[in-house]
Design brief:
By secondary structure, the protein is mainly beta. Helices cover 6% and strands 46% of the residues. The protein is built from one helix and 28 strands. A hairpin with a 4-residue loop joins β1 and β2. The N and C termini lie far apart (44 Å). The relative contact order is 0.12. The N terminus is likely disordered.
C-alpha cells in the first residue's frame, strides 16, 4: 500500500509538470521580461538595448551578421518590432533586401525572408520581380501578420509570422513609406514618399479602399484619438497637418519654426517623426532639418515647448507608459528623452559613433 501511494503521488506530480509545460512557454516567465527601449542603428546594423530606468545601454545586438565588405556604407537596419515573446526582434533590412528575425538573448539569426519576390505570385497578371527595398513595418492587432512597405516598389508585402512566408501584396502605388493598421483590423493606411498620396486598404482582402491625393509626399502620420483625424508630416512642410479622412479635408496646417541647417542635405524631408502621448493630448514632432523637437498640445495645437535635439532628429515614439517621447537623431547618434507634460529634456543617450539611429521600439524584452 505504501509503494502504491508513492507511485500515485509520483504520477500526480508528473501530470502537474506536463500540464505546466503545456500551458507555459518553455523558458519564459513574467519574471524574465522587463521594459526596455530598443533602437535600430541603420548604418551600424545593430540594435541597442537600453534600460529606461537608468538610461544605460545594456548591450548591442549585431543584426547584420551576414554583412559584406563594400566601398560605401549601406543601411542594414531600418525598422524594428519585438514580438510578444520579448525575444524575437524583426528587422527590415534595406541592403540585404530582406526581413530578418534575431534573438535578443542569444543574438542568433532566427529566420530571414527575402523581399525580392515575383509579383505575379502575389498579384495575378503582374509578372515582374520586386526589387524589394523594405522600409517601415507594422504588425496587425493580433500579431499574426506583418505588413512591410517596399519603398522602391508599388506596395506593401504581407508576411505570415507563424509560417514566415510572404502571403500577399497590397498594390498601393509607388513609393510606400509609413504603414499602419487600425486597432480593430478593419483598415490599413500607407503614406507615399513618391506619388504624393495616402492610401487606405482592407487588411482582410488586401484591396485598396480609397486613395487621397496630396501635393507632396506623405511622411510619418498617426491616427488621433477623436474620430478619423490624422496628424501627417509632408515632404517640405515645417510642421504638420490635421487631416480628416472621411471628408478628405485638411482641417489645420500647423507651422513650426523654419531653421534649416540641414535642408540642403535633405531637400525632400523637412520634418520626419511623430508620436502621441498615452493620454492623447500631446504630440511630439521631430523637426528634422531644424535640429529641434516640438511638443504640441492637442486638440488646441498650441506649442508647449521647443526642445533642442541636434543632429537631425528623424523618428519619435512614446514610452510604454505614454509619459515620455523618445527621439532619435541620426547624425549625432543620440536618443533624446522628452517629458510630454513639461516639455523638458529628461535624458540624452549617446550611441556608438556612426550608428545612424532611426526606428525604435519599446516594451517587454526578455532579459534572461
Amino acid at each position: 500500500m505504501h509503494t502504491n501511494a508513492r507511485l500515485t503521488s509520483l504520477r500526480a506530480k508528473c501530470l502537474i509538470f506536463l500540464f505546466t509545460l503545456a500551458v507555459s512557454p518553455i523558458g519564459a516567465t513574467a519574471a524574465d521580461l522587463e521594459n526596455r527601449l530598443v533602437v535600430a542603428n541603420n548604418m551600424a546594423g545593430t540594435l541597442a538595448i537600453i534600460n529606461p530606468e537608468t538610461w544605460e545601454i545594456e548591450r548591442y545586438i549585431d543584426v547584420a551578421t551576414d554583412r559584406v565588405a563594400l566601398p560605401i556604407p549601406v543601411p542594414y537596419a531600418d525598422d524594428i518590432i519585438v514580438l510578444d515573446d520579448g525575444d524575437t526582434a524583426i528587422i527590415s533590412r534595406p541592403f540585404p533586401r530582406d526581413v530578418s528575425a534575431y534573438s535578443l538573448t542569444s543574438g542568433e539569426l532566427l529566420w530571414r525572408i527575402p523581399t525580392n519576390e515575383t509579383l505575379g505570385k502575389l498579384v495575378p497578371g503582374m509578372e515582374y520581380p520586386v526589387v524589394g527595398r523594405p522600409d517601415h513595418m507594422t504588425l496587425g492587432p493580433k500579431g499574426k501578420r506583418l505588413y512591410v512597405s517596399i519603398l522602391n516598389e508599388l506596395g506593401v508585402v504581407v508576411i505570415d509570422i507563424a509560417s514566415q512566408t510572404i502571403i500577399g501584396f497590397v498594390l498601393t502605388g509607388e513609393g510606400p513609406h509609413n504603414v499602419k493598421i487600425n486597432s480593430d483590423n478593419t483598415r490599413g493606411y500607407v503614406g507615399h514618399v513618391y506619388g504624393d498620396r495616402f492610401t487606405e486598404f482592407d487588411p482582410q482582402t488586401l484591396q485598396v479602399v480609397e486613395q487621397h491625393e496630396f501635393v507632396e509626399g506623405v511622411r510619418p502620420f498617426l491616427k488621433l484619438p477623436d474620430g478619423e483625424k490624422f496628424a501627417m508630416q509632408l515632404d517640405k512642410l515645417h510642421g504638420f497637418i490635421i487631416y480628416d479622412v472621411p471628408t478628405k479635408t485638411v482641417l489645420k496646417t500647423v507651422h513650426l519654426p523654419e531653421i534649416n541647417p540641414h535642408q540642403a542635405d535633405f531637400p525632400h524631408t523637412a520634418h520626419h517623426g511623430l508620436a502621441l502621448s498615452g493620454s492623447g493630448d500631446r504630440l511630439c514632432v521631430a523637426g528634422t532639418v531644424s535640429d529641434y523637437t516640438a511638443i504640441i498640445d492637442y486638440p488646441s495645437l498650441e506649442r508647449r515647448a521647443i526642445v533642442n535635439t541636434p543632429g537631425q532628429p528623424s523618428w519619435a515614439i512614446p514610452s510604454s507608459d505614454g509619459k515620455l517621447c523618445f527621439v532619435s537623431a541620426r547624425k549625432s547618434d543620440v536618443v533624446s528623452v522628452i517629458d510630454f507634460d513639461t516639455g523638458s529634456l529628461v535624458s540624452e543617450i549617446t550611441l556608438k559613433k556612426g550608428s545612424y539611429p532611426q526606428r525604435m521600439w519599446t516594451g517587454p524584452v526578455r532579459i534572461r
